[in-house]
Design brief:
Strand content: under 5%
Structural class: mainly alpha
Oligomer: single chain
Helix content: over 70%
Largest sheet: none
Order of helices and strands: HHHHHHH
Radius of gyration: 14 Å
Number of domains: 1
Amino acid sequence: MLTLDGLRAYGANVDEGMGRCFNNEAFYLRLVGMGLADKNFDKLDEAIAAGDASAAFEAAHGLKGAIGNLALTPIYTPISALTEALRGKNEMGDVSALHAQVNAALAEARKLVD
């Protein structure tokens, strides 16, 4: 079950995220759940697998904003670095380590929802 304490233990900046949600716990937790289910994670995986740097950048950039607003720092840090690694690139380059960090942080966060 997703809780503020669980998110804090995970490393999220809950106070920052809650502040953006008018300190409404139910609203914040609902948005976190939605953020963790964002289809851009799938789009990012598909674009990286296909070597499509432009599509990967678009997905990563969208996630950077959404995850940043939720203050999910363990995902935000690598997704931000991945976004910058892809910015303005026509070719993918080696982003596998950053992509793996994003997916690992996402998997840990999704455990909090169950």
